[in-house]
Write a structure and sequence with these properties.
The chain is of the alpha/beta class. The protein has eleven helices and 13 strands. It holds the Pfam family ABC_tran.
């Protein structure tokens, strides 16, 4: 049974339709992403799931409960990442965790959480003295302090430098490995590709696709382009005869082979049999960026 189920969600702000007919289901233990540009309706969808907004239409179920009616119960079982400015400057890291731990029936061990999140030496540091990455990690710690079954992370790595972003991704995988289901809202393609088991692409308040990152890419175009310099001339017809290969071109000593499926394996096997070494080998594949453009007609970032 899915831990989150959204069916035909509809939400308006006055005349403005923010979410129209959004449906998806999240299975226990997965990292499920909601990916879309600014204004796509991601936050509205998540706020309905958190019980913060009432839908105008559709049904929502979180852990088998109704987000609005059962908000108190769900608050114990679903961890929500706070936005940065929601903590007082002078509150120390340890105090924040102890305070939040007191809200929950079965809090996690704050010391252990601080260690997992690399904040053990920041226990006595005031919130305002933390770096952007540390504030972000604290907000994740606060989302996890109640030992939630589901964590909702909205714009997880916005404003972080590339290294802190990668560290945060590693951390989220560790959290998932401990059995927490993660609903991740993002407008970073790389983040979605790296972290999500499956994702819903949302645009203009609608779900335009739901799949694994690889499935989204394959659905758009699975053609690959292989480029290399053969160590000695090779008969192009041999490459063209491979069923996976579509075209073979030669540009100044470089061969460019396009094809589908297992074309890379087919080409490299043939070269190995012919004892030809492929120098400067490069493979270009469609990316999630290409999939997004194909699905929505525009680029994300
Ligand atoms: N309180 C509100 N009143 C009126 N319109 C709103 C309100 N909140 C959001 N909207 C509008 O609804 C649409 C969806 O907004 P939402 O915040 O859900 O999108 P989003 O995908 O989360 O975008 P972002 O990445 O910018 O947060 C947008 O056009 C937005 O301007």
């Amino acid at each position: 049974m899915p831990v989150i189920e959204v069916r035909g969600l509809h939400k308006r702000y006055g005349e403005k339709v923010a979410v129209r007919d959004v449906s998806f289901a999240v299975e226990r233990g997965e990292i499920f992403g909601i990916l879309g540009p600014n204004g796509a309706g991601k936050t509205t969808t998540v706020e309905c799931l958190e019980g913060l907004r009432s839908p105008d239409g559709g049904t929502l179920s979180v852990l088998g409960l109704d987000p609005h009616r059962d908000r108190d119960e769900l608050r114990q079982r679903v961890g929500i990442q706070l936005q940065e400015s929601q903590l007082p400057d002078k509150l120390r890291v340890g105090e924040a965790l102890d305070l939040y731990a007191s809200f929950y029936r079965t809090p996690a061990n704050p010391e252990k959480l601080l260690t997992t999140l690399g904040l053990a030496d920041k226990r006595d540091t005031a919130y305002k003295k933390l770096s952007g990455g540390q504030k972000q990690r604290l907000s994740i710690a606060l989302a996890l302090i109640g030992s939630p079954e589901i964590a909702v992370l909205d714009e997880l790595t916005t404003g972080l430098d590339p290294q802190s972003r990668r560290d945060t991704w590693d951390l989220i995988e560790t959290v998932r490995d401990q059995g927490v289901t993660i609903l991740l809202v993002t407008h970073f393609m790389e983040e979605a590709e790296r972290l999500c088991d499956r994702l819903a692409v949302i645009d203009g308040g609608r779900v335009v696709a739901i799949d694994t990152p690889a499935g989204l890419v394959a659905g758009v175009n699975d053609e690959q382009r292989i480029r290399f310099r053969p160590s000695r001339p090779i008969d192009r017809r041999e490459l063209e005869a491979l069923p996976e290969v579509r075209t073979v071109e030669e540009h100044g000593g470089q061969l460019v082979v396009t094809g589908r499926g297992n074309v890379l394996h087919a080409v490299t096997s043939l070269l190995a049999r012919a004892q030809v070494i492929a120098g400067d080998l490069r493979v270009d594949q469609a990316s999630l960026d290409d999939a997004f453009v194909a699905l929505t007609g525009r680029k994300l970032d």
